[in-house]
Amino acid sequence: MIEYENLYGLNKPFINDYRDAFERVLNSGWFILGDQVKEFENAFAHYCGSNFCIGVANGLDALILALRSFSFKEGSEVIVPANTYIATILSILNCNLKPVLVEPDPSTYNIDPWRIEEAITKKTVAIMVVHLYGKCCAMDEINKLATKFNLRLIEDCAQAHGAKFKGKKAGTFGDFGAFSFYPTKNLGALGDGGCVTTDNEGLKKKISLLRNYGSEKKYYNELIGVNSRLDELQAAFLSIKLRTLEDINTHKQNLARIYNQELKQDFIKPAMNKDYYDVYHIYNIRHPRRDNLKEYLLRHGVKTEVHYPVPPHQQIAMKEVFDKKSYPISEEIHSTTLSLPISFMHSENDVLRVVEVMNKF
Length: 361
Ligand SMILES: *Cc1c(COP(=O)(O)O)cnc(C)c1O
Description:
This protein is an alpha/beta fold. The protein folds into two domains: 7-101 and 110-242, Type I PLP-dependent aspartate aminotransferase-like (Major domain) (Aspartate Aminotransferase, domain 2, 3-Layer(aba) Sandwich), CATH 3.40.640; 245-358, Aspartate Aminotransferase, domain 1, CATH 3.90.1150.10. Helix content is 38%, strand content 14%. The protein is built from 13 helices and twelve strands. Strand 4 (124-130), helix 7 (139-148) and strand 5 form a beta-alpha-beta unit. Helix 2 (15-28) runs antiparallel to helix 9, helix 3 packs parallel to helix 9 (232-242) and helix 10 runs parallel beside helix 13. The structure holds pyridoxal-5'-phosphate (PLP).
């Protein structure tokens, strides 16, 4: 059986280092906002090419705190791709703002920059882009729009650690990059974690306060904050894995290249383009008989996933939010997409085996 993913296997190469880190943190007697978090924040900011990184509890909180730091008026509109994981949209709703969905470019699955302008109204305050599956959005056009209409720009980088557009890394284009270190992400912790990147010192200060009860000095509160901190243990684990992130990304790129070259043309494969350095958090293909294909693959020993089966606007939870609006491009993607095994623990032979089975479908 070729697994889709195995979190033990993914972390196996790091086990001895994790054990040392655990001992170190335990012996230090310091578990919240200490040297481990600072060290990781510095290392990740440096990795991204960002001035600052602020560790938070998870990726959803990273998005929420980024939005909250601007104190937008209630009901203001935030432009967001219709084709994304639900967390992106939840962050907007949790800040009492209004998500305005924009369809993706069907060749990249990312927000279509040419459709953004028509969604901008007097109430629009920000664009929240998502570098889905590990491919950056078309940031030239999007940056131009943000500047032209004086909008804040937040990047959901939860699937894009180390992804680049024209040599520049995800998380450095907008006011904020928001990252998740959920265990399955390219840079995953042994539990929840997240961070925000920014080049702006004032915004950095604000996020640092917001994540910690709005307080810099213990028991003195300047802002109405929350408790959303990255903890010392997770930070220590993340510092270890960060040193291998480039290898993880290039390994996945190599596997993606094999899929792209070897899979037959019946499958719609991800676009590759010299301006985009993709990190393949997910490698997806599309096929009109996706469900049959998934079942067929399972019968032949290949596990796959669907990211995602139901688009956000069709979720039960969103009934009142997007009442009966339709987003046909997103719906089409959700009903035809299939994610193939691609992880640090998969070998070229695993991928060639998947290809062999796929090509007989
Ligand atoms: C994983 C993910 C998130 C949320 O991250 P958590 O750490 O699970 O809160 C947000 N957006 C996207 C696109 C994601 O894939």
